[in-house]
Design a protein that fits this description.
132 residues, alpha/beta, Rossmann fold, 5 helices, 5 strands, 17% strand, globular
Length: 132
């Protein structure tokens, strides 16, 4: 039996984390949660999840900084990161790309689109998969 993939969800809105976690668990993923950027960075480094879903606007460290710190560190750069944010301006998408994100989704969340993106990133891990 294959080991379940672990996904870290980092968002400062507990209801958002809970909704995403419940959805992912129903699709047989193990879910880790963090509620600010600093906690998310710590958990990513300690737990080494298979994928990270990361909000942008959070206390302590914003999502762009967390993404950049992980993607530009050889130990963690292989972990796919999906930026999930309410910020929808072209400059936000560009900043996500410059931060190293593998994919960018705008809230409100379409769960099936998120699931498809997760499956694509996990199945093809290691290849260039920018999903913007």
């Amino acid at each position: 039996m294959a080991k379940r993939k672990r996904i870290l969800v980092v968002d400062d809105e507990p209801a958002t984390v809970e909704m995403i976690a419940d959805f992912l668990k129903s699709h047989d993923y193990e879910v880790l949660a963090a509620y600010d950027g600093k906690e998310g960075l710590h958990k990513a480094r300690a737990e080494k999840p298979n994928l990270i879903i990361l909000d942008v606007m959070m206390p302590k460290l914003d999502g762009y900084k967390v993404c950049w710190l992980l993607k530009f560190d050889k130990k963690y750069s292989h972990i796919p990161i999906i930026i999930l944010t309410a910020r929808a301006a072209p400059s936000d998408r560009e900043t996500s790309l410059k931060s190293g994100a593998d994919a960018y989704l705008v809230k409100p969340l379409d769960p099936m689109r998120l699931l498809a993106m997760i499956r694509k990133l996990l199945r093809e891990e290691g290849e260039s998969l920018k999903t913007f």
